[in-house]
Fold this protein.
Amino acid sequence: MLDSFNQTQFLHSVITIGSLLIFAIGLVGVLIKKNLFKIFLSFAIIESSLFIYFIGMHFEVEKVAPMLTDKVTKFSTNMTDPVPQAMILTTIVIGIAVLALALSFIINYFKLTNNMRVDDMNELGDEK
Amino acid sequence: MNLKKEIRVSTLFISLIVSIMTILLLPIFLDFNLASNSLGDSLLNINEIETNSANGVTSVVTYFRGFDTLGEVTILFLSIFGIGLGLDGYRDKLNIFAYENRLLKSSVDILFPLIILFGFYIIIHGHLSPGGGFQGGVIIASAFLLMFLAKGDEFSLNHKIISITEALSGAGFILIGILGVLLVDRFLGNFLPLGTIKELFSGGVIPLIYIFVGIKVSAEITALVEYFIRIKDVR
Amino acid sequence: MSLLYFVILPLLASFLTPFFRNYLRYISLAVNLMLLALSFSFLGSLPIRESISFDSPLSIAFVLDSASLFFIVLFLSIMTLFSIYAIRDKSRKDIFILTNMLLASVSGLVLSGDIFNIYIFFEIASISAYILTSLQKDKEAYSGAIRYMIMGAVASIFLLIGIMTIYLNLGTLNLVTIGEKFSTIDNQIKSLTLISLFIGFGIKAEIFPLNFWVVDIYQASTNRVNALFSSVLSKAYIFLFFHIAYILGVNIKILSFLAILGIISFGVSEISALSSKNLKRVFAYSTLGQIGVLFIALSSSSIVATTGAIFLIALHAITKLMLFLSLDILEDRFSSVNIDIFKKFNSLFLISIFAIGFLSLLGVPPFGGFIAKLTILEGLITKSEYILVGAILVISLIEAVYLFKLLGMSREAGEKSSLDIPILKRGVLSIMALSIIYLGIFPELFLQICKSVALALVGVDNV
């Protein structure tokens, strides 16, 4: 009975609904939360949902990983697409680099002003 | 004990709008039709002739789209540089994350070289099995994290060696590219012999590129770990 | 001679920094001059297409046509002038690592012909900008840097959504192939992709609804960094926005929507500049206004107006560099950027530099800004856009109000102190002022160059 779930269309629907839900959760986090660190973590959640969507949509049920092993001896079109995997590798690293840089700025800002809330950041703006 | 949590009106309003937008977007995404012949399939067809590497993803990351990997390495370098500019008082701060645990302290001396050896194995065999420079580099950095957690203030890094390692491996990556321009007339072109598939010495420039990337990533993430661990004055 | 040297040599200079920390300024200047010479050597053989790693339509391609060459020469010249200005300042050696990265990423943005590669260079430029904003290490700088990172993260997420939908539907990442196949996507997905790319590129190109954060960033960073943001970064992102727009084949409705956004942007920025008392913010509002004019001109589908826009891009880059570097001299002397420091200084040289800059921004003859605005208005008239022409003239009057007010404040009587400007900085500022005057009096050759750039940008079959 479970074999009827092992079809490409069903898997694609599950991945679409799941990643849209995670995107929505991250988006609500960005818009609502006031703590600076939680805002950047919500951005990381949004990016994770995009990665899951992109890799998941390229998967089809009979395909194998694009590398040669003892059972797979030549490259053929029966393998999943390696380009999205390479793109997502790169994007994950970019995501951590930006998150680490943001965290260091937040630490330095907190040391100078003792403030971690985004609506109390009022140093910039026109003086009257 | 009062366990009620206050929920602001704006929170409910924004959640409602986001849920409505998600439900409206769902039908668009549910009937997607994907492209039939994409870039990846064509690259897999020429993979055997061009690179002789057994791992399709590695040959895409380092060779077919090697320029993106150069950009990614640059982004990591810039980010660590930016963190170092701000958090540069680390030399006289204390490490507060050390654990006083007998098992950890006695096992870390055996585990540290083994984890580094495992990391190098993953870096070097990137073109034969899943793995590669980024993955192995992070494993090596996790070995250093273990040492920080176990040894506390007795363990500290020599940042001069780390910055020289970073500089040399980054320059090494670019030099392989420039050698490609000079010898084969294409940036990052393949100028080493291709060897036979599934051997360690195969794949042309691919293992070399991944070794440079692996050393650079491990040096950078280790420096990142130390910058963030020594921040005692924050509290 | 490979096209990649424009990207690789500044990158190599930044990577090898631990070996020559004290000489980095001189090495950066040498790299800029070498690359300028290299770019002039490509003049006769355009267009050039160079592929990376292997020779096939499947590889990443770097394309040099007249538009890319123009922008590369512009960015290299601005970086050279900036390096000469800052070369004697021993307290800020670290800025050169970041300016080299900025130069490498901006050259890559302009040259690359592959959309994921453009995303990578976009991220390198963004991270350099974040670190440049926070260089002062005080609380305004970190506050500005955090805000910039939040907006930058939003832009990068939308850009990723756009790139992912393009690859899922078309299966290719090469810009030329995307341009050919883009119309085969069905309409709902196409509008989703266009909206995501518009928000992603538009946040960085600073067009109307998405530019509420820009002025705070200019207030948070130092004046030299503002000079680089205003003359190099914003121009690169505007070029990228329209390059992608013309490749994806936008139709007339979208172009008129962009023109409306441009005129609203121009109006709102100039009106906000009237009430501001902080000189950095005034100049930032002026930059946003000129970006609005550029959007109107570049989306008007008239070659004359696009030629004027390219002329304005070059001229505005030189003008803003000159104005922000002069403001840097004033801030060093008075430690404040409030609007009344204009009453306090007594240097004829600096007043004439400010006057040349302001008059060129307004579009008064015989300065270069006059030719630029005249060409743009000519082009709009040939397309019968009389409302836009009238609106630009009215809003320029508002611009004149605050610029003349500033010039008037410097002629007021009162206690004034003299300024001591070193010869090197005087030289750099004079070169920029003289080139603005030269382009105003003898514009013909430069207009010819701008016309070929405009034809290359729009794509000759779209004319």
